[in-house]
Amino acid sequence: MKASTAERWLSLFILPSLNLLTAFFFTALILLITNVNPIEAAHYMIQGAFGSQEGWGYTLYYTTNFIFTGLAVAIAFHAGLFNIGGEGQAYIGGLGVTLVALGLSPYLPALIVIPLSIIAGALFGAAWAAIPGYLQAYRDSHIVITTIMFNFIAASLMVYLLVNVFAVPGEMTPASRSFPDDIKLWQWHEFMGFFGVDFDSSPLNISLLLALLCCYGVWFLLWKTRWGYEIRTVGANPDAAIYAGINPRKIWVLAMLLGGALAGLVSVNELLGVQHRLVLGFNAGYGFAGIAVALMGRNHPIGIILAALLFGALYQGGAELAFEMPNVTRDMVIVIQGLIILFSGAMEFMYQPLVRRLLWRWVRAGA
């Protein structure tokens, strides 16, 4: 094996796998301490996530959101930025979807309103991310601080709008009125039924295809276009980028625009695909989980798909586990996520020295 190939295996497969196994090991210890059989718990989680068509539907529904937010973090990371504002960007994206869906549906057919709603969700998310991007590029404000604060601003803004602007008179629920019946995405069972294939009903809808298309688009942009080369160059070394004639400030703003647009597409899955109206808290922590998805996926679209599928399975499997084993709450899923983030993020390179020595011995032995 060549040294470059060994390093690639180390970074893309060996270290993530070891980190994931370590997280699961400590999860098993916590379950044992709480008098829960970890093997039985794992069985319920796997069965709940993958044991039926409905389970697959819920798992892939969650996966769709994690793909969007994971890509939003990854594309900024390649430019040397840490976008942890996906939560707010997804929330504001929902505002764009709602304004178009409710505002244009009386005047335009659904075939036009739905694509415009999708575009609006992306544009509103991009606009919300553009402000921290601009502050980072031209005012030297730290992107982590500004994106965190913009999450809180977005949450407060949406509470105000849902209570004082969009609220339906006579209803206590902080939500807008429902979209017209034809302003919605195909559910997956409807989509499969079009091809004569039976599939159980679930929240999964065709925004999954949009998420996969975005994965391809991000891969093509980053590794096959000039813009992508400039993004990766700025992320690797801003000083060298300037020497090569690249303006890092413009690239930082561009990366945040693209990241915000991707995060805004969470609203497409949630509002056009499932809720069919703007509701409070529909973003439900997907933006923060997207950070872990990007870290686990090594900021590569293929890795993000796999990591998003894992987190989708944890969400759905955790719900099944809490149902089958009442002494295990949904908080256990948060514990598992936290351990994965710990070992895939903060302690990402814990095993690197040992594994690298072993790999080099193997490479020398093969030579």
The third-level CATH topology of one domain is ABC transporter involved in vitamin B12 uptake, BtuC
Instruction: Identify the CATH class of one domain.
Output: Mainly Alpha
Q: Report the uncertain regions.
A: none
Mean of the pLDDT scores?
A: 91
Radius of gyration (CA) equals 22 Å
Which assembly state applies to the chains in this document? single chain
Main beta sheet strand tally, sense and closure: none
Percent helix:
over 70%
CATH architecture grouping of one domain: Orthogonal Bundle
Written description of the protein model:
By secondary structure, the chain is mainly α. The chain has a domain at 64-313: ABC transporter involved in vitamin B12 uptake, BtuC (Orthogonal Bundle), CATH 1.10.3470. It is 75% helix and 0% strand. The protein has 16 helices and no strands. The chain has helices at 3-33, 38-50, 53-78, 86-104, 110-139, 143-164, 188-194, 207-224, 226-236, 238-243, 248-264, 266-275, 286-296, 301-324, 331-346, 352-366.
